[in-house]
Write a structure and sequence with these properties.
By secondary structure, the chain is of the alpha/beta class. It has twelve helices and 22 strands. The protein has one domain: FAD/NAD(P)-binding domain. About 25% of the residues lie in helices and about 20% in strands. Helix 6 packs across helix 12.
Length: about 575
């Protein structure tokens, strides 16, 4: 195996987490190598490429499932099978990772999220938490994390207005909110009449030209509707390729190696010595020694790399011992309603990934849970992300799937439907976890990650609750017909739901119940930091990116401290 000269820091995966870490560390003079298994990407790659088939349905920006995938089972009594085609979630690949193909909806988790166990018990008692639910406090408070939220938002240029039901802010959003469309105005006015608290959702699609604190200038959003699953041809959508990665490169201290597939973290005596990766263009195995290893890939890949490296204690669901793979959580996305308007038309084909309005009256613990059979809740929003032609053909329930009536209803409602949707939280359970599959392997012969997960009664009750609230709003908006998606069936790997996978390398205040501390430093290996939504002990009723970004900035601060002094940071 070829051994290279040692560097200060090696980063595994160059997406949002890796880009932020690289930017912050290289500005301090540290020598950083970023290993990315995918290819190089730049804004010019997307010039005039509004290709729905190529990007949205042939997954141009996603991981190649023929070389590596995940296996899935709903419980331990059945055999897990590989995900052979994309469905439930989309795993990004290449420079920028999933940060290239996200929509740009950028929320902060609620103060309740970070102290969820203690706050729930304080208000409702221990019996409110059902048997098997493994919620825990995060080992950090919203107030402690708030400055890092602010730093991420200023770097990304978030456009938005203050959420009246969220945690206190130290500063306003750096940019004003995006445009208010007629349908958004209907939603906002209706919600206010219902005594709710709507606001224009925070967007990483710029509402105006903006230059961030690092001097990176970007243009305003053009509302083309090609955000999710696409790279932004204007650079208006904040992603690592147009924000933090150029800053790191400019220092001269950052080297990116693409097509470099990291397979092991090398360690000895409780500390990492570097990583071993395969150059996929040549097949050569290479050792990159480093003083500090920072794991910044996607949730599944973070967990899998630690397990394959035998670093940290694997989670055992039968006993509850161990931490790597613990508290896998997803998102409850089926609590929604579709409204059909006979006498109103909307230009829903125009839009942006984070154009819309939200309300949090039913999120977190913003309402009394005494009489409902679940904890937490979800954000409710009406977004106008751009209804591209291949994917969208709304017709009322009961309409035949082909023939004359199908065509008639398709034409009638093509521009006369609006969706109000709940994005529900996901609580962890003892029997929801990630481990290595004993049967299936990747192209290199390494075990795949196995996901054991299903929706619980908590999720079904939450979905029903949110869907009913969504339907009520659409009725008040004047829809002639409302189809409410109340039923949440068993979880399946198909169809697409969200890419908001969380957990597996969770944070906390004790090595007995968590894998990393509140700087995302591993308890079991002080010079290894694991960045990303893998650190979330549960998933909130929001998109995870804003919280991932805030935690990455805090972790970067911790890595700099560790580089200077060593030892545990807490």
């Amino acid at each position: 195996m070829k051994k290279l000269p040692k560097v200060d820091v090696v980063i595994v995966g160059v997406g949002w987490g890796g880009g932020i870490i690289a930017s912050e560390l290289t500005k301090k003079g540290m020598k950083v190598v970023g290993l990315e298994r995918g290819k190089e990407r730049k804004t010019e790659d997307y010039l005039m490429v509004h290709d729905e088939l190529r990007y949205a349905y042939r997954y141009e920006l996603m991981q190649d499932l023929s070389k590596e995938t995940i296996t899935f089972r709903s419980n331990e009594r059945i055999r897990a099978l590989p995900m052979r085609q994309y469905g439930s979630f989309l795993i990004g690949d290449g420079i920028g990772g999933a940060g290239v193909h996200w929509n740009g909806q950028n929320y902060r988790f609620l103060p309740y999220d970070f102290q969820i166990k203690s706050k729930t018990i304080e208000r409702y008692g221990k019996n409110k938490i059902p048997d098997g639910m493994t919620i825990q406090d995060w080992g950090i408070t919203y107030e402690e994390l708030e400055p890092y939220f602010d730093k991420f938002e200023k770097m990304a240029g978030i456009s938005g207005e203050e959420n009246p039901l969220a945690g206190k802010r130290s500063a306003k959003y750096p940019n004003p909110p995006m445009k208010t469309t007629p349908s958004m105005r209907m939603f906002i006015d209706t919600a206010k009449k219902m005594k709710l608290h709507p606001y224009i959702l925070p967007s990483a699609n710029l509402s105006q030209a903006y230059t961030n604190p690092d001097g990176v200038a970007r243009a305003a959003c053009q509302y083309c509707g090609y955000c999710e699953r696409f790279g932004c041809e204007y650079g208006a959508k904040a992603d690592p390729v147009v924000t933090v990665i150029p800053v790191a490169k400019k220092t001269g201290n950052f080297e990116i190696r693409t097509h470099s597939y990291v397979r092991r973290i090398l360690h000895k005596g409780g500390k990492a010595t570097g990583v071993m990766y395969t150059d996929v263009t040549t097949g050569e195995e290479i050792e990159q020694p480093a003083d500090i290893v920072v794991v910044t890939s996607y949730v599944f890949n973070n967990v899998r790399l630690l397990l394959n490296s035998k670093l940290g204690r694997p989670y055992e669901p039968s006993t509850g011992r161990g931490v790597i793979g613990k508290n896998y959580a997803y998102q409850v996305m089926r609590g929604s309603a579709l409204g059909f308007f006979d006498n109103k038309e909307f230009n829903t084909f125009a839009g942006a990934g984070a154009l819309g309005a939200s309300l949090d009256d039913y999120n977190g613990d913003n309402f009394d849970h005494s009489d409902v059979n679940f904890i937490h809740g979800g954000n409710i929003a009406m977004t106008q992300t751009g209804l591209r032609p291949i994917a969208n053909n709304p017709v009322p329930k009961g309409t035949p799937s082909w023939g004359k009536e199908f065509k008639t209803q398709s034409v009638k409602y093509a521009n006369r439907t609006l969706t109000v949707a709940g994005q529900g939280s996901s609580m962890p359970f003892k029997h929801h976890y990630l481990d290595l599959d004993p049967v299936y392997k990747d192209a290199f012969g390494d075990p795949l990650i196995r996901m054991t997960f299903d929706f619980e009664e908590q999720d079904r009750q939450l979905a029903k609750f949110l869907a009913t609230k969504c339907g009520d709003i659409l009725k008040e908006m004047g829809a002639n017909r409302v189809d409410v998606n109340i039923n949440l069936g068993p979880y399946d790997i198909m169809p697409y739901q969200s890419t908001h996978n969380t957990g597996g390398v969770i944070m906390g205040n004790s090595p007995d119940t968590s894998a990393v501390n509140n700087y995302l430093q591993m308890w079991d290996a002080e010079n290894v930091f694991v960045i990303g939504a893998s650190a979330f002990p549960h998933n909130s009723g929001y998109n995870p990116t804003g919280t991932v970004g805030a935690l990455a900035y805090r972790a970067a601060e911790g890595i700099i401290k560790y580089h200077q002094k060593g030892g545990s940071l807490v």
